[in-house]
Amino acid sequence: MAGKRIGILALQGAFIEHEQAFNRCGARSIEVRSPAQLAEVDGLVIPGGESTAIGKLMREYGLDKAIKDRFAAGMPIWGTCAGMILLAREVADSKQFSLELMDIRVKRNAFGRQINSFEADLEIADIGKTRGIFIRAPYVEKTWGEARILATYQDKIVAVQQGNKLLSTAFHPELTEGGEMHRYFLSML
User: Fold this and answer.
1) What are the catalytic residues?
2) Global pTM?
3) Can you identify the CATH homologous superfamily of domain 5-187?
4) Quick one: pLDDT at residue 94?
């Protein structure tokens, strides 16, 4: 992955943890807060955090249009937790803003409130075993089109990939030491 730069949307949420995870994988990452910074990266991570706040700031800084334009030009995007919500074409029972890029319908806070956070072992298609940390996590209610299920937990869809350009996870791989999901995203570049 020499020469490839991963952008991490750094408006709110777990962006520093993603930077650290990519650094452990030997990748270069930069914090993205503007369309000019987005133009410098080969792939983008939309981290976990508060999806409403991240969406509002994305629109305020003109990043919503810039992200859609870069995606249309071929840039891969990975959304974790709140990022999954922001990538979804549909957000169940909500008027939540999203980029409407991924053929999924997501349910917000689907596993419960903060107090209901948990960890679980997962089997991810094409990757293998990993540990999932779920914090006020969403899950995918429905997929269609090219969206392919990569993992489930208790019959709930928690990881999806669409083509070679979109990846979303309901859990927080950046909070584990393994790096499997980060290396997988790097392989999509």
Assistant:
1) 81, 172, 174
2) 0.95
3) Class I glutamine amidotransferase (GATase) domain (3.40.50.880)
4) 86
